[in-house]
Predict the 3D structure of the following.
Amino acid sequence: MAQEETHDKHWLIVSDLDGTLLDHFTYSHTAVDGLLRRLDDHDIPVILNSSKTRDEMIEIRRELGNRHPFIVENGSAIFIPAGYFPQAPDGARDEAGFWVLEPGAHRKALLEYLDRDSRAHGAPYLGFANATPGQIVDATGLSLEQAEAARTRHYSEPLLWRGTDKEKQAFCARARDAGLTTLEGGRFLHLLGDTDKGRATLQLLECYRHARPGDYMVVAAGDSPNDLDMLAVADIAVIIRGPHRQPPQLEETGSRRVIISQQEGPEGWRESIAPLVE
């Protein structure tokens, strides 16, 4: 690691998963395994920040050997391993070995809203709450076991859109008027509370600053429009190319550097992140 860059700064890498740290089609992370080990050896946390659920994230963390906090369901909740910081953050609750912060809404409230909205305007989508595990497998390429974990949500509802763009725009406007958020991911339209990946990133960053004062260099990596809020709060925004679409657009500013990978998925993650910290 480059001492002149890391001596006076604490590095945090915040990363999306599907299409970014994991291959869009196979979910493989082989291309980044070596770099992840080196980052861990040098005490540079990699914070997983995804639309995935707690159960999905715990399994992926185990596969990656990741021991750091993580953010689930597009910024709806932050899970910090108990004891990771000297004390639990204000407002955190204990859950199965984690300190949990919940900036988002609970899924029950979201499903109640969808029920009201569908009765008034129809439902040109398939929500996870009404989908069978087999339908989720068909839509995502996950295994049946992984689809069950994806279906067990607590703070958001993914919608496989089947209507027109005009209907989608009207749906998003109604949700916004109701104080909710919609985010376009790689495969789904996500309905969640008044939060996003960026605000959750900043909330977790404050936990790090409180526990370990100093200057922080935040690197964020993502591949889709629902990552833009996260990318926008980073000092270095890494946009990972994906198949069959243009990378999301983000302006470079005086305080934010933007990198767009040449390669796709985890190969692009390795290509972009390694030169920053080695």
About this structure: The CA atoms of residues 83 and 180 lie 33 Å apart.
